From TrEMBL:
Pfam families: DUF4474. It comes from Amycolatopsis pretoriensis. Residues 232-357 form the DUF4474 domain. Signal peptide: none annotated. This is DUF4474 domain-containing protein. Residues 88-115 form a coiled coil.
């Protein structure tokens, strides 16, 4: 039984090693840097206004444009720092709560251990005394096991928050890349943490019996209406229900952002009840290379049935540092991300089902690596809907827009049965639009 108490004390020690003060300092440092950036931005604007009154011609206009872009970069960096400060504060508060619970558990364990150590004292050798002592011993041991289980739950909950907020920090485009003192997670660790959450999800199903029936009928709308379940699903899989639009979408920090993209993933779709139209299903994908950075980019489109009563579409954007990537692409991050407004509609009637204008993206820029919109409607047979998808895509510069446009036009010409039409949009911001009626 000593081993149980040793585990309790070891877990408590592990939690108590964390520093809420250090996390608080990081949050304050982020905000202090944000204020400095705000001052720099104000100075830049003042200089730009003064120069605009005197600078004319091509060189002057180009310099002013560069200053404007530099100023916007400061806005993006300031937003990164504010979001990072909030992440550090979330981790700080979670750690403080975990440490308090760990201290309480340690105190309870020490009290139980004393009771166990002295449980046999004061009794004689009479059979009744032995029976009472034996019963008390069993009760104390059972209480110790409950304490250990509670403390494991506390550490699992904190570990999950550290993973989620740490991932947000890692994907920032500014200078804050730390994972709040934790080592970078590998996929095996992520999987292990998710598996450890399964008992908690099963407990929620037991707590809310109506969810079991909803799960059997694939009624995801009802399932996601439960805030506890919805938060778990968002934390680990990134899916969130958009009430205004009536569809599910995804966040940037989902597990999918770690996995990136391989063509093999499409092969798993049928196992999950998906019947999708997809680009690249014949091995010809929409890919292009940026001559300046050497990166290769992959644009993926999907639309169709996601279950008996679920339908929608996706626009995914992925990157690789080299064309020789064995078919694996990373989820686009930072400046590589794109802003997508995706509409799913009925090809026969023109009826618009829903539009995702970038919901799910972190921050306010609506840039993401994955625009997903899926509606679950028990009143429809998803495989009978003649779905079309149209979208407007905004990218970081005209050069990238033109390369994406050229590749989409090439793909459309090579696949006339896809009925894909592509048009260029504005240069400021750089956009293109398409209509896909496969």
């Amino acid at each position: 039984m000593t081993a149980v108490f040793d585990k309790i004390y070891a877990l408590a020690d592990q939690v108590e090693k964390g520093s809420t003060t250090e996390l608080d300092d990081r949050a304050r440092a982020c905000r202090a840097t944000k204020e400095t950036i705000a001052d720099t931005k104000a100075l830049l604007e003042s200089v730009r206004v003064q120069l605009s009154e005197a600078w004319h011609g091509g060189a002057g206009e180009a310099a002013l444009t560069s200053l404007e872009a530099f100023k916007k970069n400061r806005d993006d960096q300031a937003q990164d720092l504010e979001d990072s400060a909030k992440s550090f504060e979330t981790i700080r508060d979670a750690l403080a709560k975990a440490q308090q619970e760990a201290r309480n558990t340690r105190a309870d364990a020490e009290s139980l251990q004393k009771k166990l150590d002295h449980g046999w004292h004061g009794f004689g050798i009479r059979q009744v005394d032995l029976a009472v002592a034996w019963a008390q011993d069993k009760a104390v041991k059972a209480q110790a096991l409950v304490l250990l289980a509670d403390l494991e739950r506390v550490t699992t909950t904190y570990d999950a928050i550290l993973l989620i907020e740490g991932q947000k920090l890692r994907f920032k485009t500014g200078q804050v890349w730390e994972l709040a003192g934790s080592e970078k997670r590998n996929l095996a660790e992520i999987g292990a943490i998710m598996l450890r959450e399964i008992p908690g999800l099963l407990a929620l199903l037991k707590k809310y019996p109506e969810l079991r029936a909803a799960l059997l009928h694939q009624d995801w709308n009802k399932i996601m209406q439960n805030p506890e379940v919805a938060q778990k699903i968002y934390d680990y899989l990134g899916f969130r229900y958009n009430e205004e639009g009536g569809f599910f979408t995804t966040g940037e920090h989902s597990v999918q952002s770690y996995l990136g993209w391989k063509d093999l993933y499409d092969k798993f779709g049928e196992a999950f009840g998906m019947e999708l139209d997809e680009t690249g299903d014949d091995g010809d994908n929409m890919e292009f290379t940026d001559t300046e950075t050497g990166k290769t980019y992959r644009l993926e489109l999907w639309k169709g049935k996601y279950g008996n009563h679920a339908f929608g579409g996706e626009v995914g954007f992925y990157t690789s540092d080299s064309p020789n990537n064995n078919g694996h692409f990373n989820a686009a991050q930072g400046d590589d991300q794109i802003k997508v407004t995706q509409t799913i509609y009925n090809k026969d009637t023109g009826q618009v089902y829903f539009t995702n204008d970038g919901q799910g993206a972190d921050g306010t820029d609506k840039k993401h690596f994955w625009n997903l919109a899926i509606r679950n409607d028990p009143g429809v047979q998803a495989d009978q809907l003649p779905l079309g998808q149209r979208a407007t895509i905004e990218v970081r510069d005209v050069g990238m827009r033109d390369r994406m446009y050229d590749e989409m036009v090439r793909y459309a010409a090579a696949h006339p049965g896809d009925h894909l039409t592509v048009t260029k949009g504005s240069d400021q911001p750089p956009t293109l639009s398409y209509d896909w009626q496969k």
